Amino acid sequence: MLKNFNLQIPKDPAGIAKAALVALLLCNLVAGYFVLFPPGGSPKELDEQVTNLRAQVLQRTVQLKLMRAHAEKIQRGRGEGDQFLNTYFLTARTSSSSIVDELSRSAKEAKITPKEHSIQSEDIEGSDTLKMLTINGNYEGTYADLIEFINRIDRSSRLLIIESMNASPQQGKGRLNINVKMNTFVRTDGGAI
What we know:
The protein is an alpha+beta fold.
């Protein structure tokens, strides 16, 4: 049940003094509470929070520096990868003629007679921009010339991988029939092979 509180303001000086003392006592109690239990925490708690926040800032700064270093390495790696692709991989538009010309030139410089070449293109699983070319080339020459030809392929400015090689001697001529199967890679760059 609700009771009616009738607050009467005292009219005599002693009553006013008592009311003022009660009001001051209440204000002191409230102030004492805020001194003992400050709204943000005690000074010790605030110091601990500041220390924790400084440690977090330091940790995040170190993480940020590491992330920037990783991002820089990724950018450098991407640039080096693009440079590698541009240097060692042909474009699809000119790959067939360029690779046959380069192989024929290397064969002639090694004194090997180039014969027919066949080229097959295969998709590389997981890549939309690269294809693998398989080149089967037939040549005729001596063993020493074959070694020179392989050396020239090894020093080629293109990435040529010799997958297999067969050499069989010709009867009575001292020369070899040579079949070389090589792989190389091309960038499609929107052009057809």
